[in-house]
Amino acid sequence: MSTERDIRFTAADFRRLRQMLYQRVGISLNDSKSHMAYSRLAKRVRQLGMRQFADYLDLLEKADDEAEWQHFVNALTTNLTAFFREPHHFDLLRLHAMERVTQERHYRVWSAAVSTGEEAYSIAMTLLSLPQLNRQRLELVASDIDTRVLSQAADGVYDAERAKMLDSSLLKRFFLRGVGHNAGKVRIRREVRDQLSFYQFNLVAAEWPDMGRFDVIFCRNVLIYFDKPTQAAILQRLAASLQPDGLLFLGHSENIQHLSDAFQSCGRTAYRLVNHNVRR
């Protein structure tokens, strides 16, 4: 490890950290993430007056402090997102919704790793732009394991720079511009924020709450953090959470070939549920 680091962080510490993260939330850090782990946790270790990572890891294991564990998990999860990232997914979502909204039931979508909220609000803007979709029959659920980003998502406040590439009609309809000390910020309108329900959710939890079945699930850039057996288990549960012929959207680098026979490709990193008999 680098001698320039002011906090002792050994190869053994990193192996231990990886094992603790895996046991806690199922995330598997690869060997290249040592520097990332140090940079994200070092500030917290300093705040606690410690000079070596081993002491911090001891604290986590011995104190069993839920708040400290949450800080640990929050620091080591990645939250890269943007409005309408992977735009082809939203084109498919629009078409799928237009096929389904003629039915007399709710249209339900789950953003399973919502991060700071841009994905969930992109889903909401796409669906609320459909004239044939009654707002009262739309249910949007957003979840993440990271409590810090969930709070940001629920607030719906962003630097205006993050929304500058959006169509002007979307900005006018769905956003408020900040004034005074909020200049340079935008906020999602309340009627859009109220359309969403936000929950903390761990995809590798022993038990999933009964949320019913969804028409569409977005679970993008999440599976890459798990090993193959965990990926397969999550996919089985996602399949069991979808309506017949429901859609699953994954990240651009995620490939579920050989991991599940419940889905059939229907576009770039887009899959349709074809095995309707999957059980959790």
Automatic annotation (TrEMBL):
UniProt-annotated binding residues for S-adenosyl-L-methionine: 79, 81, 85, 119, 144, 202-203, 220-221
SMART domains given in the database record: MeTrc
Catalytic activity of the protein: L-glutamyl-[protein] + S-adenosyl-L-methionine = [protein]-L-glutamate 5-O-methyl ester + S-adenosyl-L-homocysteine
PROSITE patterns listed in its UniProt record: CHER
Keywords: Methyltransferase, S-adenosyl-L-methionine, Transferase
Alphabetical list of InterPro entries matching this protein: Bact_Chemotaxis_MeTrfase, Chemotaxis_MeTrfase_CheR, CheR_C, CheR_MeTrfase, CheR_N, CheR_N_sf, SAM-dependent_MTases_sf
E.C. no: 2.1.1.80
GO biological process: methylation
Gene3D superfamilies, alphabetized: Chemotaxis receptor methyltransferase CheR, N-terminal domain, Vaccinia Virus protein VP39
Domain called CheR-type methyltransferase: residue spans: 2-276
Domain of life, source organism: Bacteria
One Pfam family named in its UniProt record: CheR_N
Single annotated GO MF: protein-glutamate O-methyltransferase activity
The protein's role, per its UniProt record: Methylation of the membrane-bound methyl-accepting chemotaxis proteins (MCP) to form gamma-glutamyl methyl ester residues in MCP.
Family matches, as PANTHER family: CHEMOTAXIS PROTEIN METHYLTRANSFERASE
Name of this protein: Chemotaxis protein methyltransferase
Organismal lineage: Bacteria, Pseudomonadati, Pseudomonadota, Betaproteobacteria, Neisseriales
